[in-house]
Amino acid sequence: MERDHAGASELRRSDLARRTGCNLETIRYYESVGLMPDPPRSASGHRRYGPAHVERLNFVMRGRELGFTMEEIRGLLSLVDRGSHTCAEVEELGRHHLEVVQAKIRHLQAIEAVLSETISRCTGGSAPDCPLLDVLTDRPAVS
Amino acid sequence: MERDHAGASELRRSDLARRTGCNLETIRYYESVGLMPDPPRSASGHRRYGPAHVERLNFVMRGRELGFTMEEIRGLLSLVDRGSHTCAEVEELGRHHLEVVQAKIRHLQAIEAVLSETISRCTGGSAPDCPLLDVLTDRPAVS
DNA sequence: GTAGGGTCTGTAGCAACTACAGGATCAAGG
DNA sequence: CCTTGATCCTGTAGTTGCTACAGACCCTAC
């Protein structure tokens, strides 16, 4: 006879981790900050997860993969949890995040332009003169 | 007569901050982690900065603007401080950093592609159906 | 019954700052 | 000379998104 077993889909924490690919400690972290609900516990205090937890963790993980902050995911989840969300509301969160992503890309591209241009002027030799150091020290390039 | 004044270019912390555009607290932080040297102090313990500090802080700040980590900047500084650096050494640090930046750009662009494609399919209406939520829940798009 | 895993909690660490609190000190005006 | 307000000092805690312990408990299989 099995004790402490409320159904075929009761997962331990390591099962949930394996199934979702999420780090074990990260699951606890998501619970501690309220992204994941506190799961029911066995008599001895061990967490027991059901299919709803798997779904929710997948949601959170996909959100993170798309670069949403935990705050944004919280917003998305609360829309969904409310049960009366609209596409327009979700889209707005998405569009805002998209703009942030695009701004980051532009920022990195600006850095990339300076870096690659500067490095392309490096001789790579054993002399101390270096265009990259010139940029960092703001010494104007020798014209 | 001026007391506590060892030259025309002795700066207080707020002067250094203003002159470089660096946050006041950040200067202390850089000192605490060794990116900036501990400056000499006045009799009462107030920091006094000279031109060398301005130069070094500018170096650090330009490095940060180019996205170098503090560890990388530490590396660059130790090359320069050693006094016998070569362009090849500096270039290698720069090239490595460039690759990191390019990888970040690619990562963000992949995110951007998914996000903008998904959001473009949003109707923005008051219905709960939403392509972005579909992606997050991994519900396959209705074909 | 015991060995080995897994689980529990709390805490500290990472990067790179930023922001206080609570006190000392300085510079200028009266 | 004294007050006032700005600036300085230190130490500590907060931020984001985890990750990694330590030390105790528990659970399962042999």
Automatic annotation (TrEMBL), chains A, B:
One family name in Pfam for this protein:
MerR-DNA-bind
Give the transmembrane region(s): none
KW Transcription (keyword) present:
yes
Alphabetized SMART domains for the sequence: HTH_MERR
Domain of life assignment: Bacteria
HTH merR-type domain boundaries = 16-79
Spell out the protein name for this chain. MerR family mercuric resistance operon transcriptional regulator
